[in-house]
Specification:
about 0% strand
Amino acid sequence: MHHLAGDYGAALGCLLQPGRGGGAAAAAFGYVAAALGGGRAAARVPPARVPALRAAALTAMPRFVEADSGAAARLVLKEFPGDHAAVVESLGASPALQYRYLKGAMEVWGGSSVFDDAQ
């Protein structure tokens, strides 16, 4: 419902509610990937709305990092690579989250094939 209304922040908020378990976090990561074109056509956001989805995902990044720091880093580095520095800076208020995100990013850079899809 939120997705169809273009309220991507609310959609992510529902998926990332505390106490929903690890499956909810996986659903949130899957939602962003599908909305950016990795899913069926009905789930994709129109190109003009991608900046709104990007902004919602970046705003929710602390909750993404809490849920799965490696998946959060993969999401940023694959879908929003130009925002990596801004994410690091935005997590500065919570050094523990910032550390977890950076550790996840190093794991992605060190051994993942996150960029193989683009080649």
